[in-house]
Write a structure and sequence with these properties.
299 residues, binds S-adenosylmethionine, 31% helix, alpha/beta, Rossmann fold, seven-stranded mixed beta sheet, 9 strands, single chain
């Protein structure tokens, strides 16, 4: 007899389920915080990325990620990126041979930069300003790959709803590809000039409530700025990530962990070669038909 473990509501050590209005409070606050910091990121790196993508075929992704993407299959695949920021990763996927590419991000400033770069460099990618949770049914079932990269999941208050959106975007047999910051990295102090022990555990692994911070988002140009805008950062355990993905109808295909820092805040740990997991790649596959049938999406 087939047995299926069904304890969805009990697996989580930390995850909180949020009501839609509460979600919007967080995501709108984060939108404002990202709009505030984007000009600083642009001041530090906009020209650098423009120059880079003016070179034909330029790819900003690291070798490990490129190898995994190629192993999964990216050439000719229609890709949606969630939380795409300034578009550099999606432009890279396009340069790796992806088919139709659409990036979604809540920040107006990030999307404006991504659109301008795609146009300047003549790389055909579409960029849509949208909260992930508000992505409309017109996008359902249109993608072979949903791509999520470093520093995206931390802005997401409710993983179950996030993965449900990813699943809706995918065709049957499509893949969700995540290259993210390992939650163990979140337990360690961020790089700073006065840091004496980068390997000291300073934060818990299980933390249900978000970190609320003001400013400090310019990890690109490292400009100090004061802000009155709160930003909300959620640390999700690996079990929350994996089980939320499985709960949305995706089967686990691949999971690997790495000592490489993808957060831009834990280079000191990486350089210590202490065997600490700092990043991971997770691949899920849409097993059955998409729950949202694209043929009936507009009914
Ligand atoms: C750290 S950045 C993404 C980083 C990306 N890997 C890169 O290197 O450019 C996080 C992005 O998530 C976006 N974001 C945060 N909350 C979001 C939401 N609810 N829906 C869509 N985008 C969101 C932010 O606007 C920001 O551009």
């Amino acid at each position: 007899m087939e047995s299926k473990i069904n304890c969805d509501d009990r697996y989580s050590g930390a995850q909180v389920i949020h009501a839609p209005a509460e979600l919007q409070k967080y995501t709108e606050a984060n939108r404002a915080a990202w709009n505030e910091v984007m000009p600083l990121h642009q001041k530090a790196a906009r020209e650098k990325w423009d120059r880079a993508f003016l070179q034909p075929g330029y790819v900003c992704l690291d070798d490990v990620e490129v190898e995994m993407l190629q192993c999964m299959g990216i050439r000719g695949k229609d890709v949606a990126q969630l939380c795409c920021n300034n578009g550099r990763e999606l432009l890279s996927l396009k340069n790796l041979g992806a088919g139709t590419c659409v990036g979604f991000d809540v920040s107006d400033e990030a999307i404006a930069e991504a659109r301008a770069r795609a146009e300047l460099c003549r790389i055909p990618c579409q960029f849509v300003r949208s909260d992930v949770y508000a992505i409309g049914p017109e996008w359902a079932g249109r993608f072979d790959v949903v791509y999520v990269s470093a520093g995206a999941l931390g802005w997401i208050p409710d993983l179950r709803r996030f993965f449900a959106v990813a699943a809706l975007l995918l065709q049957p047999g499509g893949h969700l590809f995540i290259h993210e910051i390992h939650p163990v990295a979140e337990m360690l102090p961020c790089d700073s000039p006065g840091l004496t022990d980068a390997l000291r555990i300073v934060e818990p692994y299980f933390k249900a409530e978000p970190y609320v911070e003001y400013g400090g988002l310019d990890y690109v140009g490292h400009a100090e700025y004061s802000s009155t805008l709160p930003q909300y950062w959620f640390v999700h355990t690996l079990s929350d990530v994996i089980m939320s993905m499985i709960g949305s109808g995706l089967a686990l295909e691949h999971f690997s962990e790495y000592p490489m820092d993808v957060s831009a805040g834990h280079h000191r740990v990486e350089q210590a070669h202490a065997g600490v997991p700092l990043s991971y790649i997770l691949i899920g596959k849409m097993a059955g038909p998409a729950r949202f049938d694209k043929r009936t999406a507009n009914d």
